[in-house]
Amino acid sequence: MKPGQQPGSLLNSWRRLAGLSQAEVAAAVGVSRVAISHWETGRSAPNGSHLHALFGVLGLAPNQRRAYIAAIADRGQL
């Protein structure tokens, strides 16, 4: 993660790189499209049960997973 990059913008970038819409990610994770939007804008963050599904859907590498978890923890969202 680049210094200053917000966790929500990371999720947005990773989702777009995966070629998925918010609705597609939401359906795969089991949440609403609005929840995905809130995660991408930083209004909220996924909980532990949704994190695992989200990481799998986006195909994130272990270093990306760790970086995202650290970023949301730093913001007090974990």
Task: Please tell me about this protein's structure.
With 78 residues, this protein is mainly alpha-helical. α1 packs across α3 and α2 packs across α3. The longest helix has 13 residues.
Short structural summary:
By secondary structure, this protein is an all-alpha fold. Helix content is 67%, strand content 0%.
Write the layout of secondary structure elements.
Elements: H1 7-17, H2 22-29, H3 33-41, H4 48-58, H5 62-74
- Give the uncertain stretches in residue-range form: none
Report the count of strand segments: 0
Shape: globular
The radius of gyration computed from the alpha-carbon positions, rounded to a whole number of angstroms, is: 11 Å
Give the SSE order as H and E letters: HHHHH
List keywords for this structure.
78 residues; mainly alpha; 0% strand; single chain
